[in-house]
Amino acid sequence: PAVYILPPSSEEICSNQNLTLHCIVKDFYPGEISIWWQEKTAQAEVDIPADNENHDCDHNSHQCSVISKLEVSRSKWILGTSYSCLVAHLSSEGIIARSA
């Protein structure tokens, strides 16, 4: 699968208390896939279950895609907390990670 992470926009950072990260996963088949998030601070790493929205499969072309969103607090983002989207699929050798 191809995995992309989109950080919050600068407009969102300036105006909102909560920010949204997007993890876009595409070009995988079959549709079963594991996605989770990880929050990393200087003190700890915490796994966060993903809320997989917009899961879509075209069975004719054998292509699936999914978007997972994670809402984080602006204060944690500004303090430098890092977030990763982790993806496991039977077509990949191991876990694919992308960080923001």
From TrEMBL:
Keyword Oxidoreductase (UniProt): no
Domain annotation Ig-like: ranges: 1-100
InterPro entries: Ig-like_dom, Ig-like_dom_sf, Ig-like_fold, Ig/MHC_CS, Ig_C1-set, Immune_Resp_Modulators
UniProt keyword list: Immunoglobulin domain
Pfam families: C1-set
Protein name listed in UniProt: Ig gamma-1 chain C region
UniProt organism field: Chelonia mydas (Green sea-turtle)
